[in-house]
Design a protein that fits this description.
Order of helices and strands: EHEHHEHEHHEEEEHHHHHHHHHH
Helix content: 40-55%
Bound molecules: 5,6-dihydroxy-NADP, zinc ion
Number of helices: 16
Oligomer: single chain
Shape: globular
Strand content: 5-15%
Structural class: alpha/beta
CATH class of the largest domain: Mainly Alpha
Number of domains: 2
Largest sheet: 6 strands, parallel
Distance between the termini: 36 Å
């Protein structure tokens, strides 16, 4: 086990009708004027936005609203949010939505607090000294941004999708009512489940030995999400399945499943470039490339892939050689992705990058030669190209 810090300061308010507590919670965390930030139409249509705004009114909290966040949230709207927050004297940012809305709030918070262009942080040219307080009313179980220290923003200038992570941006509170996710299209539910699983798998595929408890957390979380994802494909309004998946989304990405391990994160970096160039749903992009990543790296530590196969995918340890067990585990995960209608190749994802685009994606992924990606196997641009090619 490597040394680690575990810091998960977000107050979680979980269960039915919890969005009605939003105003009181914002007040508890010191808000005096709130930006209510949201996405396209779902929160308006469901009446959630109105309920949240009424809750703020009930707590005598003034607010302004800004909608329009799109999946793979854009920097241009972040700039608009920064201007609005400054003009209106807002001191608290409330995301009503999923990872995209929460991340847009975090970027606005960095820009206002540090009085600068937040892209400086996402492009690794500067370090933030703080962030305005951010909180979330979660409407999709997926990104885990409601408890994570991360945020990911897409700059339309060059279509660069970049992440930035600090503890300053951790949500003060996260309101999680599983019922709010009933209205999700099944593609978004499934894509979210893949993302949740991947946040744990990125941490699980580590060479670090003696991480027994963390590994068991990981295995249990992944199995729970797989089980309930399948229920949700048939029964999207099953409260208990929604609740399991929603709680898993937060625990998968708040650090718990990585205590004492060394995360890999190559699949995420490889997918982020797809999101930047082709605007695909993040979880679907992950399922499209994961199998190709896994086959490219599994021999670095076959025992870990055997553990994955036998503990999570139920491949019997009598199945064959270690290599056969490891590969059967990878195939079984791809079968699972297919069972929830998630792609296992780029063409199934609906994109057909040319050789030149694959080269561009790979170069962007390694910041044009400034970094490598992954720890399970350290990947350079030429390795990443091979993974994209295998995923076609
Ligand atoms: O805009 P609306 O109309 O709300 O529609 C959204 C959007 O189209 C819809 N939706 C959300 N809740 C709904 C709903 N539709 C009906 N009913 C509801 N209750 O779902 C679509 C996707 O929303 P989005 O917020 O984009 O989903 P997600 O939570 O998957 O976030 C994806 C973004 O988060 C980033 C991803 O890269 C991507 O940009 N990530 C952020 C992370 C973090 N901050 O820690 C970690 C992740 O690895 C990820 O990279
Ligand atoms: Zn993710």
């Amino acid at each position: 086990m490597v040394n680690f810090q575990y810091y998960a300061p977000t107050k979680v308010v979980f269960g039915k009708d919890t969005e009605l507590q939003t105003g009181a919670l914002a007040k508890e965390f010191g808000a005096s004027k709130v930006l209510v930030h949201y996405g396209g139409n779902s929160a308006v249509k469901s009446g959630l936005l109105e309920r949240v705004c009424n809750s703020l009114k009930g707590a005598n909290l003034p607010y302004v609203t800004l909608g329009g966040v799109v999946p793979n949230p854009r920097l241009s709207l972040v700039y608009k949010g920064i201007d609005l927050v400054k003009k209106e004297g807002v001191d608290f940012l409330l995301a009503v939505g999923g990872g995209s809305v929460i991340d847009s709030c975090k970027a606005i918070g960095y820009g206002v607090y540090n009085d600068c262009d937040p892209w400086l942080f996402y492009s690794k040219q500067a370090q933030a000294k703080g962030c305005l307080p951010v909180a979330a009313v979660l409407t999709i179980a997926a990104a885990g941004s409601e408890m994570s220290h991360s945020s990911v923003i897409t700059n339309e200038d060059g279509w660069l999708k970049r992440g930035y992570s600090t503890d300053y941006a951790r949500c003060k509170f996260a309101v999680m009512n599983p019922e709010l996710t009933y209205t999700l299209p099944s593609y978004q539910t499934a894509s979210g489940c893949v993302d949740i699983m991947m946040h744990t798998m990125e941490r699980y595929f580590s060479h670090e030995p003696h991480t027994e408890l963390t590994d068991r957390f990981c295995e249990s979380l992944i199995r729970t999400v797989m089980h309930n994802a399948q229920i949700l494909m048939e029964h999207p309004t099953d409260y208990h399945a929604r609740a399991e998946v929603m709680w898993a989304s937060s625990l998968s990405h708040n650090g718990l499943t990585g205590c004492g391990t060394v995360g890999d994160w190559a699949s995420h970096q490889i997918e982020h470039e797809l999101g930047g160039m082709f605007d695909v749903a993040h979880g679907a992009g992950l399922s499209a490339i994961w199998g190709s990543w896994a086959r490219y790296v599994y021999q670095e530590n076959i025992a870990k892939f055997v553990q994955f196969a036998t503990h999570i995918m139920d491949i019997p340890d009598t199945y064959g050689t270690l290599q056969e067990i490891a590969l059967a585990g990878i195939c079984a995960m791809e079968d699972f992705y297919r069972s929830i209608h998630m792609p296992t190749s780029l063409s199934e994802l609906g994109i057909h990058p040319t050789d030149a685009q694959i080269e561009e994606l790979s170069e962007k992924c390694v910041f044009f030669g400034k970094r490598t990606v992954g720890t399970f196997k350290v990947l350079k641009a030429e390795d990443i190209q091979k993974i994209y090619q295998a995923a076609r």
